[in-house]
Amino acid sequence: MKYRDWIKQWLDIYVKPSVKEKTYINYSTIARVHLIPEIGNYELEELTLPVLQSFIVELGEKGNKLRGRGLEPSTVGVIISVLQRSLKFAFEIGISTAEHTSHLKRPKIMQKNVECFTVSEQKKIESHLLSIAPDKKLGILICLYTGLRIGELLALKWSDVDTGYNFISVNATCRDACVNGTQIRVLSTPKTVTSRRVIPIPKQLKPYLKALKRISKGEYVISGNKEREVSVRSYQKMFSNLLKCLNIKHRGFHSLRHTFATRALECGMDVRTLAEIMGHKNPQITLNRYAHSMIEHKIAMMNRVGKFLQ
């Protein structure tokens, strides 16, 4: 049996009835985009370790067809997981006589450098936001002082905000998707159990949330013209244009979350508290990701130590 025929059978008969629809769609997309085009014509018995490892290497070198470059190691890891599950199950039920995926070498996932805004850049962004009439741009300020992800921000409803403006409850996230050639916004539950969390609102942020509430006519905290839902891509583009207008080096929207975490540590917030606010599984993740990004704080501390030299 060819692998393309097997994986379709595996997905529709064995996977679909036993997993969430979102998981099935993700698996199907991986099969359609990566597995079937590259190794679909192989017979199951032909998928030996050298063939599979060569496929994995190729994914890391030129697996991203749209951009003509390799896929991120984490993405390759997800593809390997689907490949392993499908071939192991084929072996378990006797469709194939051997499986080699247990010996595949996964690409190493390197810790990405965390990019955050400097204190002066942050102040420049904040000064601009506070100088204009309240509108959807205040979502940037919310992220700077709560650490929300962009999907969490755009999925945030007023019903998730405590009536006394003391807490934000993160109950949903959103992403952009293309369905039948049409771009839509998809709401879903947070990606992990710890991502569903309650975040205290700094008292200094409350007046701006209240100002945003006064002009809001819809259920979402961040909404567009005529109270339409805002897509992730359009909000990212708005943020990019804002940085360009302020003559600040471009950084992705996620840098706002990194900036929040870095400022929190610089202010002395303990790592466990920060991990819970960020929605990390454990404090070690937070420490590994952000401890090295506090360069301005480190300089100030080193200069403080250096005073003994005088």
CATH homology-level superfamily of the largest domain: Intergrase catalytic core
How much strand?
5-15%
How large is the radius of gyration?
23 Å
What is the CATH class designation of the largest domain?
Answer: Mainly Alpha
Number of DSSP strand runs: 4
CATH topology of the largest domain: hpI Integrase, Chain A
Q: Please indicate the count of domains.
A: 2
Strand order of the largest sheet: 1-4
Describe this structure in words.
The chain has helices at residues 3-15, 21-39, 49-62, 73-92, 119-131, 138-144, 150-154, 206-215, 232-245, 255-266, 271-278, 283-290, 295-306; strands spanning 167-170, 173-179, 182-188, 197-200. With 310 residues, it is mostly helical. The protein has two domains: 3-103, Tyrosine recombinase, N-terminal domain (DNA polymerase, domain 1, Orthogonal Bundle); 119-301, Intergrase catalytic core (hpI Integrase, Chain A, Orthogonal Bundle), CATH 1.10.443.10. A two-stranded antiparallel sheet has the order 1-4. A hairpin with a 2-residue loop joins strand 2 (173-179) and strand 3. Helix 1 (3-15) packs antiparallel against helix 2 (21-39). The radius of gyration is 23 Å and the shape is globular. The N and C termini lie far apart (79 Å). The mean pLDDT is 89.
